[in-house]
């Protein structure tokens, strides 16, 4: 007597936000998902689509403004195609939009044992600075220990022993002229504050 294996569950994922179709209403872009859901999964939200075509037309116009085409048709002119490529945004899983960030250096002072401090420098590599060379220069300038470590987000950062957070801005801008002072920020009380 052989037992039959259960069939795997087939899940329909939304083409817009990437969530399972029945969870689109809980995602961040449900209005943008509606045209896709109407076409691919009309039985999931029958009361939602009873209103008519106007809702779908509005969301289709919004999607084209973001750079996502709702119909799959080609743009009518070359100018429109280049404009939509420029406006195209990177979408993360879950439908979140990744913003283009300009490079910046973030300096944070972390206090340990109520008297020992570590100054953390993040983002120098975005300006073409080699972190190993930068840590050597920082350690030599401030006569302290400095090392390149992986931070909590798996990005490399420089940890410098001691509280040098306000002396470091002048040193960074003098040593690496590619780093403008307007791109340097401090983390104070959990908020990002410009150094300038």
From the structure above, extract its key features.
single chain; alpha+beta; Translation Initiation Factor Eif1; 6-stranded mixed β-sheet; 5 helices; 8 strands; DENR_N; ribonucleoprotein
Secondary structure layout:
Blueprint: H1 30-40, H2 54-66, H3 78-87, E1 90-91, E2 97-98, E3 105-112, E4 116-122, H4 131-142, E5 146-150, E6 156-161, H5 168-175, E7 184-188, E8 191-194
Parallel strand pairs: 3-7
Antiparallel strand pairs: 1-2, 3-4, 4-6, 5-6, 7-8
Description of the structure:
This protein has 2 domains: 21-98, no CATH class; 105-194, SUI1-like domain (Translation Initiation Factor Eif1, 2-Layer Sandwich), CATH 3.30.780. It is 28% helix and 20% strand. 19% of the residues are buried. Strand 7 and strand 8 (191-194) form a beta hairpin. Residues 53-57 and 64-87 have low confidence and may be disordered. A 6-stranded mixed β-sheet has the order 5-6-4-3-7-8, covered by helices on one side. A two-stranded antiparallel sheet has the order 1-2. The chain is an alpha+beta fold. Helix 1 (30-40) crosses helix 2.
Order of helices and strands: HHHEEEEHEEHEE
The major sheet is characterized as: 6 strands, mixed
CATH architecture verdict of the largest domain: 2-Layer Sandwich
Beta-strand percent range? 15-25%
Helix content: 25-40%
**Number of β-strand runs:** 8
The third-level CATH topology of the largest domain is Translation Initiation Factor Eif1
Q: What is the general shape?
A: elongated
Low-confidence stretches: 53-57, 64-87
Average pLDDT reading = 76
Q: What's the number of structural domains?
A: 2
CATH superfamily of the largest domain: SUI1-like domain
CATH class term of the largest domain: Alpha Beta
Q: What's the alpha carbon Rg, rounded to whole Å?
A: 25 Å
Structural category: alpha+beta
- Spatially, the strands of the biggest sheet line up as 5-6-4-3-7-8
- So how many helices? 5
Separation, N- and C-terminal Cα atoms: 78 Å
């Amino acid at each position: 007597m052989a037992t039959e294996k259960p069939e795997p569950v087939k899940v329909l994922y939304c083409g817009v936000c990437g969530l399972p179709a029945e969870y689109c209403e809980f995602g961040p872009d449900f209005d943008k998902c509606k045209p896709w859901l109407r076409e691919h999964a009309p039985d999931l939200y029958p009361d939602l689509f009873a209103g008519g075509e106007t809702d779908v037309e509005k969301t289709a116009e919004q999607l084209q403004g973001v750079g996502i085409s709702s119909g799959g048709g080609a743009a009518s002119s070359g100018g429109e195609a280049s404009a939509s490529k420029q406006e195209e945004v990177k979408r993360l899983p879950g439908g979140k939009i990744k913003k283009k960030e300009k490079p910046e250096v973030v300096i944070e002072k972390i206090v340990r044992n109520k008297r020992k401090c570590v100054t953390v420098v993040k983002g120098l590599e975005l300006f073409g600075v080699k972190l190993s060379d930068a840590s050597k220069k920082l350690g030599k300038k401030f006569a302290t220990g400095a090392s390149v470590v992986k931070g909590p987000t798996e990005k490399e950062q420089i940890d410098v022993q001691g509280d040098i957070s306000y002396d470091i801005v002048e040193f960074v801008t003098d040593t690496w002229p590619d780093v403008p002072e307007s791109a340097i920020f401090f983390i104070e009380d959990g908020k990002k504050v410009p150094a300038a």
